[in-house]
Amino acid sequence: MLDHCAAQLRGMRQHFRTLIAARIDELPPPESAIRAVNDAMTRVPTVSLLWWDADRGLHREASHPTTQVLNYALAVLSADVAELLTSAQSNLLAACGATPCQRYLLRTHGRRQWCSVRCGDRVRAARAYARRRAPLRPLPGAQTSATPNEQPAKESGPRPGVTAPHARTRHR
Ligand SMILES: [Zn+2]
């Protein structure tokens, strides 16, 4: 049962991602994704329904018996995505620029490129590491390859397998 639920949620997430990607790329979204969202939204009510009983009189209550909790979750998520995709905010949708992160973000300020501080830090660390590893251009007449501020390389030659940037931060 849990596997079934997880598969359903994952499937719906893929539909959401397809729709968001199409919106970002300004491409027509696949009909199957639109249908999946609409099916989810209409399978169970996403708004509180109107009820009456002698104790409480008229009242509104969400109607989702526990047997339908998954369908209810899918409906609410689908309604949120549909709302986002048709709102003015949809113009702010962007993919996170920190590969291999696959999240999307709302570019709430113009230069925002990453979904999180963590992704931003990772990209900045990788860039700094790449700069440090880049071969220095030899200056005319210069015999040494390291500038005075540069930490001399502990080992000669590049180590292709090593990508962790942690060694770099110590010398800042
Ligand atoms: Zn990210």
Question: Could you describe the 3D structure shown?
Answer:
The structure is a single chain. This protein has two domains: 1-86, no CATH class; 92-134, no CATH class. It is 44% helix and 9% strand. It contains five helices and four strands; from the N terminus they run ααββαββαα. The strands form two sheets. The protein has a two-stranded antiparallel sheet. A hairpin with a 3-residue loop joins strand 1 (49-53) and strand 2 (57-61). The chain is elongated. 8% of the residues are buried.
List the helices and strands and how they pair.
Elements: H1 2-25, H2 31-43, E1 49-53, E2 57-61, H3 69-86, E3 93-95, E4 104-106, H4 117-133, H5 166-169
Antiparallel strand pairs: 1-2, 3-4
Helix pairs in contact: 1-2, 1-3, 2-3
The structure holds zinc ion.
Quick take:
The protein has 172 residues and is mostly helical. It has helices spanning 2-25, 31-43, 69-86, 117-133, 166-169; strands at 49-53, 57-61, 93-95, 104-106. The termini are far apart.
Structural domains: how many? 2
Report the uncertain regions.
144-172
Q: Kindly state the number of beta strands.
A: 4
Could you tell me the mean pLDDT?
82
Strand content: 5-15%
Task: List the helices and strands in order.
Answer: HHEEHEEHH
Give the helix tally.
Answer: 5
The shape, in one word, is elongated
Strand order of the largest sheet: 1-2
Structural class: mainly alpha
* Helix fraction by DSSP (H/I, runs of at least 4): 40-55%
Radius of gyration: 26 Å
The termini sit apart by 52 Å
Bound ligands, each once: zinc ion
**Largest sheet properties:** 2 strands, antiparallel
